[in-house]
């Protein structure tokens, strides 16, 4: 079983706050890193917008 | 529902201000409506803090902004009491100390906020930001002229002048903050979070517009001459936008969190 990827957790925390990060952890604990990443991108696109997320991917922040 | 209430609030305030029959009851109601927006502002910023968490950098910056709005609300309560209960001129008074303190805490909050967001100035935003810079410089000149130079050249008690100039200096700092808030809003232009940021930008922009208009037409405003009394509507709308903006942060995060809670519950049921 995979634990939560620290970078993914940090990204959710940074952009969506403490509670969202905790919920994300609860939801994706045991999921593969790829699933966690997909879940993170879905969440971030909804809140920050696709353009900002694209930029974060480009600059290798996420 | 909340947005409809904000619109209704605005329409009520606008109607009362336009049909200002100069009755004390009407003025009292206008003053009370205006005062209440300060209290809702504190509640809105508090909800944004709860959404991010107080330990979160953005939550911490909102905490300073919340202290600032609490100071402004305290100032407004004192102002309301002096103006409508004691029937005395509330300027200058202890209310001004609270208003000026409010600016300081709000500035600290904005600085922390912008530091935590780590934004870069990129070429693709150049056109919008250059235009905004041009507007900001023009506003800066107006603030400097009407809120500082004109006050220095007029007579009157030293304390009155010092407080008015302090407001002018705060407005100059606010112009810079407004530019940074616009920059932040543009960053998220296709995301849900764009709405609260742009609302806060317009709110602070309107505060500046209201302050400039007030400094130019303060005599007419003090005498409650129409349409100069409508300057208060500009500040009122600014307060409503602040409420909309900060509740917006918590609404957006709550929506994302609710979806996750739903998935967590479904996951547990499946097990």
Task: Explain what this protein looks like in three dimensions.
The complex is a heterodimer of chains A (62) and B (271). Chain A has 62 residues and is an all-alpha fold. Chain A contains three helices and no strands. In chain A, helix 2 packs across helix 3. The longest helix of chain A is centred in the N-terminal third of the chain and has 23 residues, at 6-28. The model of chain A has no long low-confidence stretch (mean pLDDT 90). Chain B has 271 residues and is an all-alpha fold. Chain B has helices spanning 2-18, 24-52, 57-85, 94-117, 126-153, 158-187, 194-216, 218-222, 231-270. In chain B, helix 2 (24-52) runs parallel beside helix 9 (231-270), helix 3 packs antiparallel against helix 4 (94-117) and helix 5 runs antiparallel to helix 6 (158-187). The two termini of chain B are 37 Å apart. The chains are: A mainly alpha (62), B mainly alpha (271). The interface between A and B is medium-sized, with 20 and 25 residues.
List key phrases describing it.
heterodimer; A: 62 residues; mainly alpha; 3 helices; globular; B: 0% strand
* Beta strands of chain A, count: 0
The average pLDDT value of chain B, as a whole number, equals 92
Overall, the morphology of chain A is globular
Q: Calculate the terminal CA-CA distance of chain B, rounded to whole Å.
A: 37 Å
Helix content of chain A: over 70%
